[in-house]
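Q: Protein A?
A:
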Amino acid sequence: MSFQLLPAEVSDIPDVVAVHQVSWVDDPIIGRLMPDVDPKAKYEYDISFYQKKFETKALTGSVMHKVVETETGKLVAFAKWKYPYRLTAEQQAEKAKLDLGRSYPPGTNEELYEQFFGRLDNLRKKYLDEEKDYCESPLAPLPHPPMPSFLSSTHTAFLSLN
């Protein structure tokens, strides 16, 4: 089995969401963020979330990559990276106007959501220099097929794509 690492496209969002939902289902925190959300509402929320990531990537230094099985073209993993970037004054003004807040579907554990992602955001602001540092979040592989050899070299491969 072989894999290809490629830039993700907007058209990949449904497959990215499918991988995202499967890869985090058993996570002790992520699995508790939306415990009582209707699956269709969660899917629509996740689609909207990733669409927004694509729409704002030039203002956030974000790039998404996908891993596909070479033989089938099936998306089996993805990762979102923040690369070092510097915004112009005009871009800074545009970024300041963005609604980066979160709105949730009914059934979301909003308190846990805000605490968890708020802490991650605070840590990024405290320790990451947007003009110098790289940050990968998330790396989400499908649980099957197992890809240990792929995952061991993923970070080097993603970094080399910039």
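Q: Protein B?
A:
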Amino acid sequence: MIFPTSLAVALLPLALSHPMEKRALPPVNSMMDESVAQLALYLEHLELSLYTGGYKNFTDAQYTAQGFPPGFRDNVGVIAQHEATHAETISTILSDSGYTPVPPCTYKFNYTDPTSFVDLANMITSTGIGAYLGGASLLTDDPALLTAASSILTVEARHDAFLRAGVGASPFPTAFDTALTAVYAYNIAQMFIVSCPKQLPLVILPKLTFVGPTPKSNLQPPTPAGTLLTFSFDPSTFFVKVDPKAPLYIAIINMVTNITFIEAIKVNANTVTVPVPKDTAGAAFAVLTTFSGGLNETQLTQFGSLAGPAEFVLS
């Protein structure tokens, strides 16, 4: 389903009935602050289109027929309203500081019914949470802006818990969430972009695709350690030449632990498998690399990524 930015108009009456409270907003004081705010806005536009579609494209009866509780669709609409408020707030922060806010794109979301919508929304919202967590460390020179971003992050986490509970999954599968670098969050968003009037000045990496296995929507039972995960890629798109005989690794980013590097089993020239590491849970992110370890997420982003990231959900 392709959703242009005009689709957000569907929730305009709802947003107008709950106008954004007038309040003092923090300034953007540096280029770093601006880059973090622009990425946050880029992702808020994406989520606004996603949740607007989830509200507009299905009826209450369609949600309840698939096992969702009464009122679930209305709350999807409330989430869309929140995303509209987040986008408006970040746009105002940027504009008031003399920056041009990044405009919305046109998006394509591959869902066909309420359940597949919620499955996708869980994954995209987890990416947004990761981006806010990753950006927090870059706003340490601006406490007011950090507080504003953190107040959005906590609401995004509530959205994700609501979605997960709606399909019967644990609303809090892990003790920690997973932070993402700006490049990684931006690349996951590209999966849903049809076209953009303006992109951000961030590198787009070669694509890594999670092939499976795909867990049940309720994520029960959780995918156990040792389960083989399959990923595909196109070696011709790599930024560097890689010896076909050289070992490849999948780096799995999950929660706040160190990245787990696992030597990949080569199925063919463009497909590998790796087992799920012990103690990996919730949403995780995989990156194809030639490094066997020793890199943190920033280093992996800057010079260690052959392709990725690919998101997968275990519990």
